Amino acid sequence: MMTIGAWLYSKQQVNLQIESRFEASKNRTIDLIVDRMSRYEDALWSGVAHVDTLGADVTAASWKHFASSLNIEEKYPGVNGIGLIQFVDRQNLQAYMTARESEERDFSIFPEHDLDFLLPITFIEPENINAAAVGLDVAHETNRRTGLLASRDSGGAQITGPIFLVQDSGHTPGFLFYTPFYSGAAPTSLSERRDRFAGVVYAPFVVR
Predict the structure, then answer these.
(1) Domain locations in the chain as residue ranges
(2) CA angle 161, 55, 159 (to 5 degrees)
(3) Which fold has domain 2-206?
(4) Reduced to 3 states, what is the DSSP secondary structure of residue 12?
(5) pLDDT at 165 over 80
(6) Which of 187, 205, 207 is nearest to 196 (CA)?
(7) Nearest of 111, 134, 132, 156 to residue 64 by alpha carbon
(8) Residues 155, 195 contacting (CB under 8 angstroms)
(9) Neighbours of 138 (CB within 10 A)
(10) Cα 207 to the center of its chain, rounded Å
(11) Global pTM?
């Protein structure tokens, strides 16, 4: 009985060590993910600061310069790019299109839907790997739209549910990470955030 008891005790200690190591490994993994997502969020907020600084003067060229300064491919592994989505009320659609076509003659918004607002991707860099996403109206799809409106309402960063990126030929599941920006002074209430909402800075991710 002493031998069996010793064996059971030894087995229990081994199991505890395994569980402890697994828990430590899990915690390290979680810490790494949290740290990386925090860095991604910082990059998005820097995009919001860029928009706040330039306002209506944000152009394709200025966005490209901003994105290049981030050095995304080296400093932010896993990110497919950084882009700007603008909120467009249908009554202001023609003015938006005129501004866009002055920079990009072939710019178009897709797909069509019946909502009274649009959320087109205005800029995204690097454009060479994200060209298919330019003009995509993220209001057309539930997960994209729901995540974006949650970011608008909270004033904070928000991750969407699973989606498929239009620019990903492999049709691999991914998600979008949003941070909102507003017109005028910083809003202090939900109603102000909705009234002054102007768009989001976002990053697309493919889960590999």
Answers:
(1) 2-206
(2) 10
(3) Beta-Lactamase (3.30.450)
(4) helix
(5) yes
(6) 187
(7) 134
(8) no
(9) 22
(10) 13
(11) 0.83
